Amino acid sequence: MSVSAALQRCLFQDKDGGSGAPHTAIIKNRFFSFLIWQFLQSTFLLFLSKTLFFPLFTHRPFSPVLLSLLSFLAFHFSFLLFSISIFFISSPHPLPYASPFEVSLSFLRVIFVSGGDRSLLRRKVEVSLSFVLFVILCAVAGAISVVCLCWGCDVYYFGGSNSVVLNLGFRASVIGLLYGLHYVYRKRWVLRFPIIQRAPFFSFKMGILSSIGSAFKFSAVGCFLSGLLVLFLPNEYRIGGSMGQYIVENFIFYAGSFVVLLCWELNHHLHQVLQTKRYAFALPKGSAAAETNPSEPLLATLEESTPKSLLQYLAYLDLCMVSENNVDTWRRAAFFEETGETYKRVIASCLRPLEEFTRKLAEGLESSSTEKSLQLSVQLSLPTDRLALTVDDAVEKYVGSFGCSQLLQVLFASLAWMFDSQTTLVTIFADAQPRCRQHCGGAGNTTSTVAEWGLICHRRFLAALPASLYFLGSVIGSAVFGWVADVLLGRKRSMVLSCLLTSATNFLTSLSPSIWIYSLLRFLNGISRAGIGICSLVLCTEMVGRKWRGQVGQVGFLFFTAGFLSTPLIAYPTRGCWRCLYRIISGVPLAYSVLVLIPFVSESPRWLLVQGRGDEALRVLRRYARINGRELPENLKLRMKPDGGTAGSPAGKLWRTKWAARRMAVVMAAGLGVGFVYYGIQLNAENLELDNLYLTVGVNAVMEIPAVVVGGVLLRLVPRRVLFAAAVFVAGGACLLCAVVRGGAAQMTAEAVGFMAASGGFDVLYIQCVEMFPTSVRNFAVAMVMQMLTLGASVCPVMVAVGRVRAWAAFLALGVLAVASGMLSLWLPETRDSPLMETMEEEQERVEDTEMVQQQHSRGVV
Q1: With 0-12 CB in 10 A as exposed, 13-18 as middle and 19+ as buried, what is 157?
Q2: Rounded to whole angstroms, what are the CA distances from 142 to 167, 337, 704?
Q3: Which residue intervals of 542-639 are DSSP H helices?
Q4: Pairing of the two strands 636-638 and 387-389
Q5: Which of 101, 95, 176 is nearest to 130 (CA)?
Q6: Where are the alpha helices (DSSP H) in 90-118?
Q7: DSSP state letters, 186-254
């Protein structure tokens, strides 16, 4: 097969209706006319921008001639790539595509499982790969076209330097990548046939304003994001110069990206207009049959074209237009004998999809087993026969308590704890006390904020301000994100927002010119990161069976430990510049949100159900069941009490209910002490009489691993209250021992054991809080506990500052508060193996039943 034939088959195999259908040249002619028109409009916009706008920033916009010619050809080559790619992925109907989960599972099945019909899965994987190829081509086309537009400007004129080309190409490829992802995600590749058919010129003219608006928005967002990402490039690939040159450079880049995106938007609109306009499958003009009856070519195309091909869609469109224009004539004709055969063919063509459906259904009923026949009968049953289950029952019976789908959800959602850990614990190194303390003024170096701004001697308490404000910001952020995640955005979108804001505030913190701006940005950073831990924990625990919730909750803390362990590994190479440390940790949450969180993590079906979006919750459960190799009954309906909806705020529901308010008060008081102990031991590491801060923090991080592993085992065996009380009692005793023992391996061992026990208590308290409250207020309750944990942590920097003078006082305070928190836990209810309720009413019934059983038991004992 020649290259030309292979290319034609690749482009037209799903659109021309098959080789046996008549009028197969229609699609090809429209494709080539689309290429011609897009060439003309892109040439016009290129000439307009090169003659009216870009000459303002250069003396010779078209010189040298050879480079101008090469840029012109490269510019149109990039648009040829883009135009061919949007034609290639376009379809008149939404195509089934494989999710990243299914692609991964398909590769595993190919490797480990033999046999089986994989044609449908193969087709879905091919569609997904075509989308990936389209996104890559958008990035390449964007890089080429923007470089060709902007290279001649004086601020960009490189004269043989590669740095400008790489800088421009990188930023433009980011914009192209974002455009391609948006194009695929919003399903803009689906052809939308207009109800009212207009002339192509008027249809194209109607979309110009919307194309300009979309280009403005895309170019603004793309320039901002690409400008942030370019800061992570090595210095040799950045464009130097003054602030004025930097502003001009970004203005020119915005103009160039706007022109390119405008051309792309117009190409997309032009493609929609040309591919969806009516084609008249008619006899030669002047024939009476051509005016009133469906023509023979039209009927032949309907009968012979490939189902769901673009050619068949055009044939049905022409049939609808002929029918609409001649329905009165046909009614008067009353099925004349000479036209009766035509009407029969029309009806047969229109009924063919229904006949195909009934044929497949009959084959399935005849050839299927008894189990499959029963399943089909259930699928065809009346709505009155629907099976109503709670989310817990659906997960336990049909989805599976913990399968491959839940494992991937837990891993991807828990990964965010790493960045939360890095953002929280970076202050240990960025705000570290310099070892040389004899000078009270500025140290003149950038090893830490204390050294750079001279926060020692009489200013040492000022060094505690940023960390305290960070934790106070976390208190406010916990309340905000708890409400947003429960009422407004849901768990997933709140987590995305939190990650993006964390990335932005971390980067801005690295630019702080003074301690006051630094403190303000750390406060904003604390507000931003508060949603990560809350939403990640709830997303993980709400999707698994009740016996797995404890272990799943521990996974998040394991990733938190990984982030804790990675912090000294990042801080040590950047120990000479605390600003570089913040810049490094700022890029990871952004990449995680775009590459992992948005495409791979699903919204909680419990939250969707509480919000009245039961159909979406069912779709999530079906997808998870399919990945687990199971299937939900077609007549399944998720059940929730009608009075358990979203009426009233979570705070109002919680504090107006006696049992909920009592639980909340106790768990918040315990959280205040645990937060003080957990974060206090970490931040107080510099007050240990040891020489290596990086080693001390590393040992603490390593001690979290056995805390998570052992805690995960004990959570299945030991009641929650007993486990929490034991953990914080051990932590308190270890801290009191540190106050007595001074220096050496003994103090370090006691500190490590105390931190391991505090970490275990911290984890158990989070999990117990999730199990104590129903779905409608769960996120708010977890947020309130996190508020108290961070409120306790906000006092820690002051305690650390006191510990720099009297180290024993800091450890004494940690020990006393740990013991007090353990005693408070005795008033909390036991929640091990208890089901997660959806509404306050369901939890109220369970509380009343528990109290009734306890009363009967007490009477029996007496």
Answers
A1: middle
A2: 13, 61, 46
A3: 549-571, 578-592, 598-600, 605-610, 614-627
A4: parallel
A5: 95
A6: 100-112
A7: TTTTB----SS---HHHHHHHTHHHHHHHHHHHHHHHHHHHHHHGGGS-GGGS----HHHHHHHHHHHH
* Sequence-ordered list of residues with C-beta below 8 angstroms from that of 497, at least 6 positions apart, any chain: 484, 489, 531
DSSP secondary structure code for residue 686 in this structure: G
**pLDDT of amino acid 735:** 82
Residues with Cβ within 8 Å of 255's Cβ and at least 6 positions away in sequence, in order, are 49, 53, 54
For the chain, what is the largest distance between any 2 Cα atoms, rounded to a whole number of angstroms? 111
Reported as a single tens digit per residue, the pLDDT across 380-400 is: 444 445 677 778 788 888 888
Indicate the SS3 state at residue 638.
strand
Tokens 């700022």 sit at which residue? 586
Neighbours of 329 (CB within 10 A): 11
Cα(789)–Cα(711) distance, rounded to whole angstroms? 19
Backbone CA torsion sign across 253, 257, 259, 260: positive
> Which of 36-45, 103-112, 220-229, 318-327 has the least mean pLDDT?
103-112
- At residue 637, the 3 state secondary structure works out as strand
Q: Is pLDDT above 50 for 317?
A: yes
C-alpha to C-alpha distance for 453 and 460, rounded to whole angstroms = 11
Return phi, psi of residue 400, to 5°: 110, 140
DSSP-assigned states of every residue in 46-60: HHHIIIIIGGGG-S-
**Cα 482 → chain centroid:** 18
Q: Which two tokens stand for residue 669?
A: 């008081």
Q: 157 with 57: CB under 8 angstroms?
A: no
Secondary element (H or E) of residue 367: helix 340-367
Structure tokens, 2: 């020649």
Query: Side-chain half-sphere of 108: how many Cα atoms within 13 Å?
Result: 8
- Runs of H (alpha helix) within 684-743: 693-717, 720-740
DSSP one-letter code for 91:
B
Q: Can you tell me the distance from the alpha carbon of 752 to that of 718, in angstroms, rounded to the nearest whole number? A: 23
Q: What are phi and psi of 113, to 5 degrees?
A: -120, 130
284 — phi, psi (to 5°)? -55, 150
Tokens standing for residue 713: 């085992």
- The DSSP letter of residue 636 is E
- Number of H-type helices and E-type strands within the chain: 35, 2
Torsion of CA 139, 141, 146, 147, to 10 degrees: 100
| Residues in Cβ contact with 249 at an 8 Å cutoff, skipping those fewer than 6 apart | 155, 156, 239, 241
| Least confident residue range of 599-613, 615-629, 835-849 | 835-849
